[in-house]
Amino acid sequence: PGQLSGGERQRVALARALLMRPAILLADEPSGALDSEATEALLDQLRTLQKTEGAALVVVTHDPLVANAMDRVLALEGGRLIARGGGL
Fold it and tell me: What is the reported pLDDT for 86?
C-alpha cells in the first residue's frame, strides 16, 4: 500500500467498499486525488452501484463534475442548506 499513489489508494478504498454491497455509501471527496478520466470511471461505478444494487449515495464534494452527476444537490451557503437540483 505504501507504493500506491493517492488516487490508487482512493480507488482501492472504493473497491473495498463496493465489495460489501452497501445499502448506503458515504463518500467524502471521492474524486479528490483523481484526474478527470479516473473521476468519470468512478462516477460510472457509483451510478452502476446505485442502479443495480439500489444503493443510496451520499457524496460530499467540491468538484462540480461530481456534484452535477448526482440526482440531487444540496449546498451549504451561509450556514443554510440550499437545494441546487442535480445533473441526472
Answer: 64
